[in-house]
TrEMBL record:
<feature type="transmembrane region" description="Helical">
    <location>
        <begin position="260"/>
        <end position="278"/>
    </location>
</feature>
<feature type="transmembrane region" description="Helical">
    <location>
        <begin position="328"/>
        <end position="348"/>
    </location>
</feature>
<feature type="domain" description="Heparan-alpha-glucosaminide N-acetyltransferase catalytic">
    <location>
        <begin position="15"/>
        <end position="221"/>
    </location>
</feature>
<feature type="transmembrane region" description="Helical">
    <location>
        <begin position="56"/>
        <end position="79"/>
    </location>
</feature>
<dbReference type="Pfam" id="PF07786">
    <property type="entry name" value="HGSNAT_cat"/>
</dbReference>
<dbReference type="InterPro" id="IPR012429">
    <property type="entry name" value="HGSNAT_cat"/>
</dbReference>
<feature type="transmembrane region" description="Helical">
    <location>
        <begin position="120"/>
        <end position="137"/>
    </location>
</feature>
<feature type="transmembrane region" description="Helical">
    <location>
        <begin position="298"/>
        <end position="316"/>
    </location>
</feature>
<feature type="transmembrane region" description="Helical">
    <location>
        <begin position="221"/>
        <end position="240"/>
    </location>
</feature>
<keyword id="KW-1133">Transmembrane helix</keyword>
<keyword id="KW-0812">Transmembrane</keyword>
<feature type="transmembrane region" description="Helical">
    <location>
        <begin position="188"/>
        <end position="209"/>
    </location>
</feature>
<feature type="transmembrane region" description="Helical">
    <location>
        <begin position="142"/>
        <end position="160"/>
    </location>
</feature>
<keyword id="KW-0472">Membrane</keyword>
<protein>
    <submittedName>
        <fullName>DUF1624 domain-containing protein</fullName>
    </submittedName>
</protein>
Length: 373
């Protein structure tokens, strides 16, 4: 999902191609995941089937990768202009604009839910606010701000998990606010708590990558990252339960129930470090269609919602295939669905050029509002 991962262009120097690869993998996994989940017959959703269980397991890491990479990319680019005055920084202006765009499209596509676009939009807004505080108070390193924010977002899930089945939080807030955290009917598909924690941890990684970008070019960075990733992936529960014992009674928090969040973050670190290693082994990776897919995640997300679910249009493929396909049909359908968007991205620049008479004035109008030249 991402992104944001939300189509802010990458800086040309230095260019970390493993980030582009991660965004492409995340959006392709999202496309096949949504198609399979919506189309596969219910009788084939058997957790005892190793193929389905493996697919479901992998799918659980798609959103954490998408959300983490979004925070990583955004702050990495923002820090390229770290010393510029806050409100004169072009990246800050573009960030606030992007945040509003994501919220708009999120509610336009699914007005009843708080989904990944809204979560990313609020995440980018929060990254900018914390960056502004950091600019005022230069005592604490920037990555610590995002580490604390991510940890608090994960940790607050301890409280929300204890709410009754139909409980809401905050209780007396408007529906739209409740839906951002723990809304009625659980309409918050990707609520701020805990999912925005991945975006904050991504911003932490982006800050560290920028500050230690020379070390990123060495083998030390991916080896350290993959080691930490495996520690989180394999030992999150033991580490969190150990912290509980260290804190001691009467402040036992049952931190062990947060292990699934940190286990997934460990998988994200493993994936990113693996891509770092692949980039080093391959060498200079030229821009290509695969990389371009990851640079257009917002456009892909919007169009796939229209094509698959009928958002805005009222008619989507799910009217034809919803829970009606067997595994072989789903496999072929998912491949064709992915191919459709790869071809779409291939010709996206030409499509945008032909639509510039509509898109151009709209883009210039909103750029003037945000003071973007």
């Amino acid at each position: 999902m991402n992104n944001q991962s939300v189509e802010l262009p990458l800086a040309k120097k230095p260019r970390l191609m493993f980030i582009d690869m991660a965004r492409s993998i995340a959006i392709l996994l999202m496309l096949e995941g949504h198609f399979v989940d919506d189309s596969l017959m219910l009788e084939y959703r058997d957790l005892n089937n190793p193929i389905y269980a493996t697919w479901l397991y992998i799918r659980g890491f798609t959103s954490p990768i998408f959300l983490t990479v979004t925070g990583l990319v955004f702050i990495y680019l923002l820090l390229g202009k770290r010393e510029e005055p806050y409100f004169s920084n072009l990246r800050v202006k573009k960030g606030f604009k992007r945040s509003l765009e994501l919220l708009f499209w999120g509610f336009a596509l699914q007005y009843y839910a708080f989904h990944v676009l809204q979560c990313i939009g609020v995440g980018i807004f929060s990254i900018l606010i914390l960056f502004g505080i950091y600019k005022l108070i230069r005592v604490i390193p920037l990555w610590i701000y995002y580490f604390v924010a991510g940890t608090l977002l994960f940790g607050f899930n301890l409280y929300l998990d204890q709410l009754p089945e139909f409980g809401v939080w905050p209780e007396n807030a408007p529906y739209v606010i409740q839906n951002m955290f723990h809304g009625p009917g659980h309409r918050a598909i990707f609520p701020i708590v805990p999912w925005m924690g991945y975006t904050m941890y991504g911003a932490m990684l982006g800050s560290l990558l920028h500050d230690f970008k020379e070390q990123v070019k060495t083998w030390r960075a991916p080896l350290i990252t993959i080691t930490i990733g495996f520690i989180f992936y394999l030992f999150s529960k033991q580490i969190l339960e150990g912290l509980d014992q260290l804190i001691g009674s009467p402040f036992v928090l049952n931190l062990g129930i947060l292990d699934w969040l940190y286990m997934r973050f460990g998988m994200v670190l493993i994936a990113l470090s693996s891509l770092m290693i692949i980039e080093k082994l391959i060498g200079d990776i030229k821009p290509n269609l695969f990389i371009k897919v990851g640079q257009n995640t917002l456009t892909i997300y919007i169009i796939h919602m229209m094509v698959l679910y009928g958002s805005l249009t009222g008619f989507g493929l799910n009217r034809l295939f919803h829970h009606r396909l067997n595994p072989w049909q789903v496999t072929l359908g998912a491949l064709l669905f992915i191919l459709l968007f790869v071809v779409f991205v291939k010709y996206l620049d030409q499509i945008k050029l032909k639509l510039d008479f509509i898109l151009g004035p709209i883009r210039r109008f909103f750029n003037r509002i945000y003071g973007i030249k």
